[in-house]
Amino acid sequence: MSQRQLFVTTALPYANGNFHIGHIMEYIQADIWVRFQRMQGHQVDFVGADDTHGAPIMIAAEKAGITPQQFVANIAAGRKPYLDGFHIQFDNWHSTDAPENHELARQIYRDLRDIPESQGGSLIERRTIDQFFDPEKNMFLPDRFIKGECPKCHAHDQYGDNCEVCGAVYAPTDLINPFSALSGAKPELKSSEHFFFKLSDPRCVEFLEKWTQDGKLQPEVANKVKEWFTVRTNPDGTTSEGLGDWDISRDAPYFGIEIPDAPGKYFYVWLDAPVGYLASLKNLLDKRGENYDAYMANDKLEQYHFIGKDIVTFHTLFWPAMLHFSGRKTPNNVFVHGFLTVNNGEKMSKSRGTGLDPLKYLSLGMNPEWLRYYLATKLNNKNEDVDFNAEDFMLRVNSDLIGKFVNIASRAAGFLTKRFEGKLTQSFGDQGTALLNDIHAAKDNIAQAYDAREYGKAAREIMLLADKVNSYVDQHKPWDLAKDTANNEALHQVCSLLINAFAELSRYLAPVLPALAQAVETFTGTSMQNPRWRRNRSRHQHRRLCQGGFAHCRNRQLRSGGRLHQTVAPHAGCGRRQNAQCVQRRGQHVQARRPQRQADGDGGQLGPAQDEVWCV
C-alpha cells in the first residue's frame, strides 16, 4: 500500500463556551481514525480551530465588558485541558479570527464574485431585503434575538424562526407582538442590501447533484441531501422547488470578516467558519516552513471532515460549492455522526442534570481511556445517535477492559518477573503458537473496520480474541503450574505466550487506548506504532520485561452507587501493593477496604481473586 496524504478536520466548536461531551465524542472519533491511519504509515495533518465570529459572541463579549477578541481568547485558553485530558492530538488548533482566515475567506469570496462571463458569470448577487432592526441597540437582529407570540399556537416568548412549543417554522415578521431579546424594544422593519451566494444557479445544482450522489456520502446522508434538490421548506412554512440562494452577509455592528469592497457589511459566520479548516492547515504549514498552495495542489491529497448531523447542509452543499467554484479542491468525504444522548435516547440537559461534564469526569479520577473505549464500542460509520448509559458504561469497562484485556497481563507479569528475570521464551508449544497465529490473522479484518470507522466492530473482534486468550489461561492455570518448580518450563511458555498475546491485542487497541499502548510498549519493548501492524520481534527468547512492572496492571473497576472502585493488582516487579487511599467525595470520607490476601510469589499463588478493592 502506498503512503497516503490525508488532511483531516473536525467541526469547529463555537467559541461561546467550553467543550461539552458531544464535542469530545466527535474529537475521539476522529482521533481514533487519525491514529489508525498513522499506524498504517500514512501522512496525516489533523487540525481544528475555534469558530469565533457572529452576533452571539459579540453580544456575550459586550455583557462581559470585554472585546470579542478577548472573549474568544479566554475561551481558547481553556481548550487544552480537555484535549490533553482525553488524549486528543490535533496537529494544530487555530481561530477563525486569525489573519489566515481573513485572507482566505476574502479571496474565496472574490473568486466566486469575479467568475468571468465566459464561465457563466458571478455567483454572488446583491439584493435588498427587509429585516427587523433594534432602535435601541442600533443593529439588525438575527432571528434568534427576536421573540414574540407564535402565530400558530400562540405560545409566548418564542424565537423568530421557530416555535419550541408546537414546532412551527415561520419568518420573524410572522411573530405576534415581536420584541428584541437584547433590549426588549419593539423592532422596526428596515430594508438593507445583502449579498447572496447563488446556490440555485444551474451550475451549482448540476455540480452538487453529482457530488452528493456519487456514492461517497453515507447512504442516509445522501438520501437526505437529495430531498433538498426537489423540495425545501421556507421560513414561512411554505415549500419551494430546488435549492435556495444563501444569504452570506450581515450588517454592522457585527463581529466578523468585512466583505471586500462593501463597507459595513460582514460575512455571515457560516461562510468563514469552514474556511477555518484551510486557515488552520495554512498556519500549521507555515510553522513547518511548507508551502500551502503546493500542499493543496497535490492531486493525491485526501481531505476529510468529521461532523455532526446538525450541520450537514453547510458541509455537503454550501462548502463544496464554495470550494469548487472558487477553483479549490473539494472534500473527498464528509463523515457524519449522530448526537450523543443519555439513558436510552434522552437529550442531554444541564438543567435536568443529565449532562456529562468532560472536565468533571477527569477531576473524579476517571480514566479518559475508559470513555474513549466505551464510545468506540458504540460508534460505527452510520449517522446514528450514540447513547451513554452509566450502568452500561460500568459493565462494558469492567467486562472488556478489566475482565478480558488487562487481566491477561496481570495473570502473567508477576510470574515472569519473579521466576524468569522478566525474560520471555520463544517456545509457546503448538497450542500457544496456533493462538498467536489466530490473533495475527485477524489484523486485516480489524484494520478494515478501523478504516471504515466501524470502531464497534473492531472492538468486538479484539474482545473475541481476548476471550480466546483467557480460555487458554483457564485451561493451563498458571497459578497451579507455579505450585511446583517442575512445571517451570510450562509456566514460562504460558506466561510468555500471554505477554505476546497481550502486546498484539494492545497494538490493535492502540488507536483507542493510546496511553495504555505506550505503557505496554515500555513494559514489553514491543512497538505499538508498527506500520500496518506487521509483527515485530516480540518472540525473541531474551527479550526482557521492564523491571518496574506494568503500571496498567492496576485494574480500575467501576461499581454502581456513584463510587469509583479501584482494583489494584500486585506490582509486577516486587509484589507490593499500593498504599491505601482515601478521598473526600460528596461530603463523605471513604477509607480503603482491604480483603484478606492470598499468598503470592515463589511457591505461592497468584489467582484471579488476588485483587483488593478501594472505594474512592
Question: Could you characterize the architecture of this molecule?
Answer:
The chain is α+β, with helices and mostly antiparallel strands. The chain folds into three domains: 5-110 and 272-363, Rossmann fold; 120-250, Methionyl-trna Synthetase, domain 2 (Beta Complex); 368-615, Isoleucyl-tRNA Synthetase, Domain 1 (Orthogonal Bundle), CATH 1.10.730.10. Helix content is 40%, strand content 17%. It contains 20 helices and 24 strands. A hairpin with a 5-residue loop joins strand 10 and strand 11 (239-241).
Helix and strand arrangement:
Blueprint lengths: L4 E6 L10 H19 L3 E8 L4 H10 L3 H10 L2 H6 L6 E4 L3 H15 L10 E11 L4 E2 L5 E4 L8 E2 L16 E5 L7 E10 L4 H11 L6 H9 L3 E3 L5 E3 L4 E2 L1 E3 L13 E3 L1 H20 L3 H6 L3 E8 L3 H14 L7 E5 L2 E3 L3 E2 L10 H6 L4 H11 L7 E3 L1 H21 L2 H8 L8 H13 L1 H9 L3 H22 L1 H4 L6 H22 L4 H11 L31 E3 L5 E5 L14 E3 L2 E3 L21 E4 L1
Parallel strand pairs: 1-2, 1-15, 2-3, 15-16, 17-19
Antiparallel strand pairs: 4-5, 4-9, 6-7, 6-8, 9-12, 10-11, 13-14, 17-18, 20-21, 21-24, 22-23
Helix pairs in contact: 2-3, 5-8, 6-10, 12-13, 12-17, 13-17, 13-19, 14-19, 15-17, 15-19, 16-17, 17-19, 19-20
